[in-house]
Fold this sequence. Notes:
- There is one protein chain.
- The protein has one domain (10-158): Thiol Ester Dehydrase, Chain A (Roll), CATH 3.10.129.10.
- It contains 2 helices and 7 strands, in the order ββαβββββα.
- It has helices at 37-56, 140-158, and strands spanning 10-11, 18-23, 59-70, 79-89, 93-104, 109-123, 134-135.
- The strands form 2 sheets. Strands 2-4-5-6-3 form a 5-stranded antiparallel β-sheet. Strands 1-7 form a two-stranded parallel ribbon.
Amino acid sequence: MKEEKNPIEYRTPDESVVIKTELILPAMANLRNNLQGGQMMHFMDIAGALTCRRHSGCEVATVRVDSIEFQYPVKVGEIVTITSKLVWVGRTSMKVKIRAVSEDHKIRTCKLTNVAYFTYVALDEEGHPVEVPRLLPQTEEEKADFEREQREYEKRRQAPGV
């Protein structure tokens, strides 16, 4: 007989935040000595997936990159800190906001270089979507983010061909 799972509980966005730090090396760069965009996306995807794994307790798969902004290049030798935080959770899917900040330790400056939104789905052992804990936003900003993303989700569901 299969054991019943616990009912889905609520978790706050802060419970699953991931902060990932990388030193940018020459092998990660393009010919202009800037971090390659695909490498940045890889760093962000890993951070986002870890956030969603923490929240759901399951393996996850990336299902959507809603947006990614490249505001400034990241140079070889700089340190990049990527922060991933949940902004919305549905029945089986989770959306994270991912921010990347570069640090030039020589001149002691930091700047926001990238902002992205990725969506993941939680998977069971057979690779099927599985229900995840609900998100309980705490701050006014978290509540506003959640409500905005809920409206966007509902718009997408009502769009033709979806």
